[in-house]
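Students often ask why we bother encoding 3D structure as a string. The short answer is that it lets us treat folding as translation between two languages. Here is a chain of 278 residues written in the first language.
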Amino acid sequence: VTVVVFIFLGVRRCSTAFEVEINEFVEDPYLQLNTKVDHWICFMASLVIPWVAYSNGSTNRSSGMPYEYVLVWFGFALLHMAHECILLIQVGGAVKRLSYFRVARLTVMSLMGLLNIELHIQFGIVAVMVGHTIIGWASILMFALCNAWNLVMVTHRCPPGLIFKLRSFEVVQAVYEERLKVDDVSMHVEAANFGKKLAGVKSSLLKRWTLRDDANENEDGGFAEFLFSCSNIIQCGLLIFFLGQCGSSPLIIVSLALTLFYVGIGSIHTLLPQPRLE
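And here it is in the second language, the structure alphabet:
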């Protein structure tokens, strides 16, 4: 993890002054295709590797999977992080809009997001293994429903601004949002200037036209975040119940800590007012 963080910090340090046009970059068909493939690979790796370990009788209550399987999963996680690092190189100087601390923090968050998903599956399998079938299948079902919706959205109808947000491209998503703020300011200025030249057309109407796509994107993203939050809250309840019934283990403690962390992050994001452009 430390090596990955330093690589991302190195990309931030060595990035050029040139910044890509962020909307064209996100809408590039090859980038869209590569990112969709990344989403599917991460989903399949998180689902298949624990089930292979379970089917071979290798699952244990302490660590979930033996280290051999953990290393295979971590290899897929590193491929995902390498993909995000390449995207970060491609955006150029836009990454300098993030501080070094923020780049490091979001890099860790990207890995934690993948780990959180993986631990949900491992917990479900362990619960089934020790006889808590309902708890185990409920955990696996929540994983399947939440991720199935995200995968359908990514594959068929994902707005450009959500393709990074839905699964652990935390650094690139932050760069996209920071770069988009500059474009939004320019867009509002142009709309206001254009409104002055048109008799009877209000600049507020023009502003609504320019932000129509953003509103649709926020609606889809809000539903995805709602599903994610519900999944984590239910998962947290299942973990606490299992902990009370069967006692603790490193797998359960780490999974519960990560789940509580994401529940807290989601609550803070909901309660705090979001900045808006006037």
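Translate back mentally: DSSP finds ten helices and no strands in the chain. Keep this in mind for the problem set.
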